[in-house]
Amino acid sequence: MLVTTKLDTFLNRAAAIIVVWVSVFSQLVTILYHYLSLEYTSLVVSLRQITHSGLLGVNGDGFGYPLKLAQASN
């Protein structure tokens, strides 16, 4: 016959709480990792766009991205 004591009940609840917190924390770490990797990727893509066809211009004349945006909005 199984006898459940107060200590057993406390340990079971404590273990359940620890499992829940570990899973929540691991999900937060995963979300943060994906967010930061996406931010880094978008930063690299933006820098590549600026340097290849942006502020340096297509022909290297210095008239690039801001001029293109101004022309596109007109």
TrEMBL record:
<keyword id="KW-0812">Transmembrane</keyword>
<feature type="transmembrane region" description="Helical">
    <location>
        <begin position="14"/>
        <end position="36"/>
    </location>
</feature>
<keyword id="KW-1133">Transmembrane helix</keyword>
<keyword id="KW-0472">Membrane</keyword>
<protein>
    <submittedName>
        <fullName>Uncharacterized protein</fullName>
    </submittedName>
</protein>
